[in-house]
Amino acid sequence: MPDQPVRDALTETLAHQVAGRLADVQGPYFGPFGGRYVPEALIAALDELETEFRKAQGDPAFAAELTRLHRDYTGRPSPLTEVPRFAAHAGGEPGDVRVFLKREDLNHTGSHKINNVLGQALLVQRMGKTRVIAETGAGQHGVATATAAALLGLECVVYMGEEDTRRQALNVARMELLGATVVPVAVGTRTLKDAINEALRDWVTNVEDTHYLLGTVTGPHPFPEMVREFHRIIGEEAREQVLDRVGRLPDVVAACVGGGSNALGLFNAFLDDEGVELYGFEAGGEGVDSGRHAARFSGGAPGVLHGARSYLLQDDDGQTRPSHSVSAGLDYPSVGPAHSWLHDLGRATYEPVTDTEAMDAFRLLCRTEGIIPAIESAHALAGALRVGRRLVAEGRTDQVVLVNLSGRGDKDVATAARWFGLLPDAEEER
Amino acid sequence: MVRPAAGRGGGAVSTTTTSRTGARLDALRAQGRPALVGYLPVGYPDVARSVEAVTTMVDAGVDVVEIGVPYTDPVMDGPVIQAAAEAALAAGARVRDVLRVVEAVADRSGGSVPTLVMSYYNPVLRYGVGAFARDLAAAGGAGMITPDLIPDEAGEWVAAADEHDLDKVFLVAPSSTPERLQLTARASRGFVYASSTMGVTGARAAVGRRAEQLVADTRAAGAEHVCVGIGVSTGDHAAEVGRYADGVIVGSALVRTLLGDDPWAARLDALGRVTAELADGVARARTSTTGGPS
Fold first, then answer.
1. Which residues carry this modification: N6-(pyridoxal phosphate)lysine (chain A) (predicted)?
2. Which residues, given as ranges, of chain B have pLDDT below 50?
3. How far apart are CA A352 and CA A331, in angstroms?
4. Using CB atoms, which residue from A188, A200, A304 is nearest to B122?
5. For a surface tag, which of B8, B56, B147, B271 has the fewest beta carbons within 10 Å of its beta carbon?
6. Nearest CB to A40: which of B82, B176, B199?
7. C-alpha–C-alpha distance, residues A40 and A37, integer Å
8. Taking the model in full, what pTM does it have?
9. Architecture field, domain A75-109+232-420
């Protein structure tokens, strides 16, 4: 082992190298985005969280416990599935566009959300707090949080927009079965945004014994960086799996972007691979021109919401504009600050996918591959097909497209059945 | 104190001019009482009537006015203020309307009642931080209270406020560390807003026990003036808090008088009565002691 001065020099060199990697940028800022735009009352808790997170990062016992939970509880590594019958819809000759799905839908609780939740729940234990609160849109994060709370014996309260409790009644029942209290939020737009406001109010009031287990890569520092770290396993596994399967890196990596946690978790492993094109697909709702969408990069502008500076749907008075998506999980007016930074850097491309395009891709994956995706993930599937067709039109062959299947569609069966007219009350809902 | 000649346009920023809010608090301290700081949102139930409400409050004894910009995502506010803000937005309230109300208060009081704007950061960011400071100063405003903007993120606002001699009121909370109390005391101008309790705005049965200690700690950290808000709703609360604070900030208890379906004149009467009760509270805050706070 080298002596101390040499070790220090090595550490410093490594630190410089790491500082140059997009994948390892630390908060509070991602370029001009991020920060901490929150009431002073929360700063002590955020500082405590950051300190505990940094300590945990350097603690092999923490890593070992998280690895054990990933393996024995979540079921990681999640598989990589090639979907040739689906990929055929990108056009070209067979094999021109190969599509691989990273199967986060096969995780315990049905989505990528469990990666972050288990990491934060272990931090809650380390901090000695006894209560967790969470926000949820589609319910995936709420279910994951209720699950981890049950596993570790924590009290759990989940805030959910009243509109979303109606859209995702099955997940409300699931959270309650797991012992959580679900609080419907009946103010504002009654969706995810307002659930986050209520969770922040609760946290300001009860911060001494309560951890806000935030579900995506937004919010005040350290959440955007910390949640990315807990999800980076998605991309690291997928990168290795693609290399193993096709002998090279993918040409295109695609994911849906609500807050952006599944996308950042996947993108992160490829951020410093210049040849890999990264695509994030936002909810285009009824079309960006309709005004009923959640396409922050097409229809928004930089601003501040929920503790971070980032792209935001807002009017010319700085009021948050209501967002819309067929998917409760993408129905959020802002986006994680790292995505805003990647957008402005030009490192990732963000495009809207309409409700109709997403539901068409949803049905296509069901019928060609026997996989029912979450409607969130269906946005990524539709976008991947669009990009695939573009690649074919450019005459590119032998293209490898990696798509994050961030969640499974069990929770969305009622929405999809109504969309496709398979339920008697279909006309009422459409 | 006077502004140094190089203060504007030369790149240097001046923080040495007298704060209008601070001067008002000093004048009241000399009279042996704290200030009553009253909050109302702009645009509830509409802009014209919110002007009537604010002037009613001034006439009934408020010493410093706090005017809220209604915002879609007010995470520091409880249900009463949020309800008023939602209604104000639904009625079409705009950020620029706050300037009209500021002007109205300045006209009504002959400039003697400092008026602070309370705004979440995004509406100001969207308006343009420099433009907002310029227009607020031109309208006769004294400064701004920023519930979701901590000094760490406030470089742009601090520069703009300094350029236009505006007060910068940042918040401290019972959870603030001594280091953060110092940081906030240094960054603030006018006064430091001490949250009496951990939580959002709204009337409570009792004011947080930690408020008195927080005021003492904030003074020890260098703040010249500390006002206490959150949870103050009665004359007795005001008298209790006014014993040790430079000002008593009341929001929800005043806003509540304006909610509901009573005729507007009756609601204004109620607002005047509650304001007068609170003014009576601050007037007797220090009568049982030998002087103001040290």
1. 113
2. 1-15, 290-294
3. 13
4. A304
5. B8
6. B176
7. 9
8. 0.92
9. 3-Layer(aba) Sandwich (3.40)
